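Pipeline run #58 for the internal structure catalog. This entry was flagged by the ingest filter as a single-chain record with no existing model, so it goes straight to prediction. Upstream metadata was stripped on purpose; only the residue string is passed forward. Reviewer on rotation: M.T. Logging verbosity set to normal.
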Amino acid sequence: MKGKVELIPLETIPEVNPGNDLAKIISGSAQKEIGGLKDKDIVVIASKIISKAENCLINLEAMKPSRKALEIAKKTSKPLALVQAILDHSEKIIAVIPFYEFIKEGLVDYKKFTAKPDVSLKLIKNDPCFLITIDKEGRIYRDAGIDSSNHPRGVASFPPAHPHKSAREIGEKIKDITGKNVAVIVADTEILPFGTVDMPRGISGIKPQAQRLAENDRYGKPKYGGVDLIACELTAAASLLFGQTDEGIPVVIIRGFEYPEADEVEHVADNLNFSIITKIVKEIFEYSLSACDMRYLDEFFDIF
């Protein structure tokens, strides 16, 4: 890869409402701001505006809690309406991350993450843990992807049901409008240890990962790398312009990056169902114990 790669935020995207044509909106804003889209541009779109356009919205104040929601809310201290929304939009809960407990025990210094420690602590106390969930398609989310930020009070959104399909349809409509072939990535924010990062949830027109395993390095040796997560890296780059608060930038155009095209794309993460992850973790422990000794297990947990 040589040359210059540009990240261009679209700053004239209006507030999106259910039924809006995102392809038309994006094409119009691009025409106004940068003279239009070009072939091989990559359009990175915040998942939330797709949720808004597809009417994936929830009135939290109208939620009727189930017995299961009441039990989980009581045990976790999460807001009851949020718990019910999570249950409605997930297949099962597989883990609970007690973030506030980490703070109380001194395991996490939340003050490193904020310029408003008092407001932050109040926010965390109101929703003190995260539920790790799996949806009906096998995708793993935090709190089922339910998000109330940048919505009016009492309103939240849930992720598009088929983000790859949404990405493909937007790309096809952009081509109909502009005549340009573009790739589309649907970006969604997830929490990793000690921070957040935007991840690709839907992809169209671009292979999500490089296929350069065993290609030679500069000294002619086959390399054990070369499988870069291209879509992840592009999405993370775009998120530098999205921001996470009041920036109001839901679309970023990436221009100048030479990428491998693809007609149909299934993201690599979609193929990792929970049973496969469980088997992988089990085999890691089995091989570690057979190659080392029992003391290794204690040392492994001491790392964390």
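catalog note: The beta strands are 6-9, 42-46, 57-59, 92-97, 130-134, 140-142, 155-157, 183-192, 195-204, 251-255.
catalog note: The mean pLDDT is 88.
status: ready for reviewer M.T.
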